[in-house]
Amino acid sequence: MQRVFVIDKNKKPLMPCHPARARELLHKGKAAVYRTFPFTIILKEREGGDTQPIAFKVDPGSKATGMALVADFKRGKRVIWAGELTHRGQQIRDALLSRRQLRRSRRARHTRYRQARFDNRRRPEGWLPPSLQSRVENIWTWACRLNRACPIASISQELVKFDTQLMANAEIRGVEYQQGELAGYEIREYLLEKWGRKCAYCGAKYLPLQIEHINPKLRGGSNRVSNLTLACHDCNQKKGTQTAAEFGFPEIQKQAKLPLKDAAAVNATRWALYHRLETIGLPLEVGTGGRTKFNRTTQGYAKTH
Ligand SMILES: [Zn+2]
Is the confidence at residue 184, as pLDDT, over 60? Predict the structure, then answer.
């Protein structure tokens, strides 16, 4: 249930309320709509009120970032608001590419002389490509926006989803990483990110996915991460001992050799995002999805969100 954000008459954030309660307040004229997105109401009379600590959780991914607000009620923790931020990385890249091409063709037309101005600049420290910088800025904007709308007490960021360095090593040697204690946990996180959390063959989402070998093991395919993909049970069965190309997916066969672009995007921005979120001034904690899942499984807890 998405709760409605509430601020008092001095614009101080209060505990988000149930939509039914918000409707009642609006209907009785005790509150007014302050903002429509995210939906926030402002109380006309009241000042202050009891609040419980709310944690803002961020899970940065390559294409989208998950955000959730978790309130610590007396009855236990509960997600009171959740959202997904779709990143514009590729769009920004395309727009800059087209601008570059337009400028290049204009320069090359020689209708007038204009000195080249693109190669005399130095990049400041901590510079990120615009497509990646936008991810940091967008998440930060939302953190600030939510911080104004509800009493956030802490922020937690999923920091180390996977480590490209380790993943690359795994692709070369792979003993420690693939047969060690963590085998299967962080690799799975990495594959979910790389393959967009869906079956690589039929595109089915929200069902159990199995790790699948692009070149089947029976035919000499290895356990290297680049040879792995995710498939639903049915596709995995149907594919059997065929390679992805034989199964009718030459583009997946090609993917087997693609670099770790998505993982790199997450890795390159995670510290920048961390330092950016630090500037908000709330306690900031970090965790790793892979390890959390590992702990949860070994301790026998079910996933709560
Ligand atoms: Zn499938």
Answer: no
